[in-house]
Amino acid sequence: MRQKEELRKEKEAERRKAALEKAHARKIAKESMELIEDEQLEMMELAASSKGLSSIIRLDFDTLQNIESFRGSLCVFPPENVKLRKPFAIQPWINSEENVGNLLMFILDLRLLIQGLKAVVVYF
What we know:
single chain; 62% helix; DNA-binding; coiled coil; DNA binding; RLT1-3; Homeobox domain protein
């Protein structure tokens, strides 16, 4: 009787683990449909290469749960030898509320334009 109970508990634990892994696989599949942050993708690639896998698709549940442990292995971006230019020659937000308003309106117009383009792409 005791063995049957232990066997039942083991099977139940295996079912729970399988259900968790299946749910996580669904989550990963859903995320793959969305944009993944570059940093997250790089950590997944590091994890796959450290395990000798050819693709991030083959990563197991435990590795994906501990993906943050690969953050220390990421390269610094941009490299220190790359000189970045400032995006604006002047800082339009410093001395003028009007400039701030114009900048925000430009960003809003840009967002609306992008949304419109997405709608056109979906239509076709």
